[in-house]
Design goal:
Order of helices and strands: EEEEEEEHE
Shape: globular
Oligomer: single chain
Helix content: under 10%
Number of helices: 1
Largest sheet: 8 strands, antiparallel
Radius of gyration: 14 Å
Structural class: mainly beta
Number of strands: 8
Length: 108
């Protein structure tokens, strides 16, 4: 299993940074995103026995504010290639879900 995180502009398709992390590793530093950017998370799941990509009934992504423990859970959807994509537009996500908090979020 792997996770790819990309940061980019809300207005253009320009990407600023790309991070690829293989399970069970974690990013070594926080990813910073402001209200004019979006964070895209892509991941795939492999069956342990067959080593082939698979889909699950529901795949959840949880964001947790580390200062307040406030959390919100989203459902990621797979595409036709069995790759899950989760797109977070910071201003929409944070304005509705975290009430414009300037915060450090933990993603699981």
């Amino acid at each position: 299993m792997y996770v790819i995180l990309t940061c980019g502009s809300n207005i253009t398709e320009c990407l600023f940074c790309v991070y690829r992390v293989s399970y069970p590793n974690k990013l070594t530093a926080p990813v910073e995103v402001d209200s004019l950017q979006k964070l895209i998370m892509k991941f795939a799941l492999k069956d342990k026995s067959t080593k082939k990509l698979m889909t699950v009934h529901q795949a959840f992504v949880k964001l947790q504010n580390l200062a307040t423990d406030q959390e919100i859970v989203f459902v990621a959807e797979p595409d036709s290639a069995k790759v899950y994509k989760f797109d977070i537009v910071s201003n929409a996500c944070c304005s509705k879900s975290f009430i414009y908090l300037i915060c450090i979020l933990k993603m699981r």
